[in-house]
Design brief:
Helix content: 25-40%
Radius of gyration: 14 Å
Strand content: 35-45%
Distance between the termini: 35 Å
CATH topology: Aminopeptidase
Shape: globular
Structural class: alpha/beta
Number of strands: 5
CATH superfamily: Gcn5-related N-acetyltransferase (GNAT)
CATH architecture: 3-Layer(aba) Sandwich
Strand order of the largest sheet: 1-2-3-4-5
Number of domains: 1
Oligomer: single chain
C-alpha cells in the first residue's frame, strides 16, 4: 500500500511540491515538481526554493531520505547540470532523463 502526504511552497516566481511516500513501511520524501518562471531563472531562485523546502522537510521528517527526479519538461534545460545541482543540495536523484 502506498500513502502520501506532502507540502508546497508557492510564490509568484515559482513553486515546489513534495510528498511523504510510504510504501511497505519504508518512508521517503519525493520532491516532484519544481518550477521557476523563465524570467527568474539563473538568479538562484530554484536554489532558494529547494533550500527552503529541504529545511521544512528535515524539520518535519528528520532523517528521511529526500528524492527528486531529473526529468525537465523543457528541452532547453541541461539534465547533466540539473543532476549536479540537485546533488549539490544533498538530494538523491532517483531518475535521470536521457537526452534525445
Amino acid at each position: 500500500m502506498i500513502t502520501t502526504s506532502g507540502g508546497i511552497i508557492e510564490t509568484t516566481k515559482g513553486y515546489v511540491y513534495w510528498d511523504l511516500i510510504t510504501e511497505n513501511e519504508i518512508d521517503c520524501i519525493e520532491i516532484h515538481n519544481l518550477y521557476v518562471d523563465p524570467k527568474y531563472r539563473g538568479q538562484g531562485f530554484a536554489r532558494t526554493l529547494l533550500t527552503c523546502a529541504i529545511a521544512m522537510i528535515k524539520k518535519q521528517y528528520p532523517g528521511l531520505k529526500i528524492e527528486i527526479s531529473a526529468d525537465p519538461k523543457e528541452p532547453e534545460i541541461d539534465v547533466t547540470r540539473l543532476v549536479k545541482f540537485y546533488k549539490s543540495l544533498g538530494l538523491f536523484v532517483y531518475y535521470q532523463a536521457i537526452k534525445k
